[in-house]
Design brief:
Helix content is 25%, strand content 15%. The protein contains four helices and six strands, in the order E-H-E-H-H-H-E-E-E-E.
């Protein structure tokens, strides 16, 4: 049994594309709507660390809230940025995916292919039409 979790926002195209790529392996992942059910501080820090990112690196800069809260201030500590993300989960960039092969912030969505333990079963195009996987299940432009 393959266990895959996605911290998902159904309103986000990148998150929807990532979920579809996971499902294209024949696996139904655990879907965590992180806006409705945000991760704990400890889990968020763990996801960030395992993905090899910084706290600021997962902070979503799009949208008015980022500016309203003054989060562009480089003097803000990681603790302050985490506080903001936990108070306003929409500030957590998405989607995070967890598999037995690792943790990734899947932006762009095809980054999920690096940590999926099963192959793609069919061709896949993103919502905008961009080809990501060919009919043989190989990453377009890649050697998988």
């Amino acid at each position: 049994m393959t266990n895959i979790s996605i911290y998902h926002n159904p309103a986000c195209g990148t998150s929807r594309n990532t979920l579809a790529l996971i499902r294209n392996t024949g696996v139904e992942p655990e879907i965590i709507d992180y806006v409705k059910s945000p991760p704990s501080r400890e889990l968020l820090q763990e996801l960030i660390g395992k993905a090899g990112l910084t706290v600021r690196g997962v902070l979503r800069e799009k949208g008015a809230l980022y500016e309203e809260l003054g989060l562009s201030d480089p003097a803000l500590s990681d603790a302050a940025l985490l506080d903001a993300m936990l108070a306003h989960p929409i500030l957590i960039n998405r989607p995070f995916v967890v598999t037995e092969l690792g943790v990734r912030l899947c932006r762009p969505s095809e980054l999920v292919l690096d940590i999926l333990p099963l192959p793609q079963l069919a061709a896949f195009n993103k919502e905008d039409g961009e080809a990501v996987v060919d009919a043989a299940g190989r990453k377009v432009g890649g050697k998988e």
